[in-house]
Structure formats: structure tokens, C-alpha cells
Amino acid sequence: MESSRDYSNEKNWIRIYPIYIDKDVKLPQGRKVSINKSCEQPTSSDIYQAITKILNLPCKLEEEVKI
Question: Burial code of 11-37, b = ≥16 C-beta within 10 A, e = fewer?
Fold first, then answer.
């Protein structure tokens, strides 16, 4: 299966936030994966390390935006 998305443009990259994979977050609160594939208190740095070092995929760590 091939994607038609142009990943050379960072605007088309997929964003993964720690809340998506946090074991302590319920699905209605924002977790996107099953509980058995989630982890405890993930950080954006953990996700970055996994993507760049283990999966060898391009990744950019976005700076935190304070509201």
C-alpha cells in the first residue's frame, strides 16, 4: 500500500503526541492506541528517540508551545 502524501514537506508529516500512547490516558481523553500497546508516561523525547534511532525515520521534535 503506497501513500499519496508528500512527506518531503514537513507540513504533511504525521504528528505523534505523548498523550496518544500514554497508558494512564483513557480513549475518550485522547489515547489513540490500545492499552497493551501503550506505555507509562511517555515523553516527546522518548518518541523522538524511538523514531530516529530504532525506526530510522526522519523526525522533528517540535518545541513546546505555551498557551
Answer: eeeeebebeebbeebeeeeebeeeeee
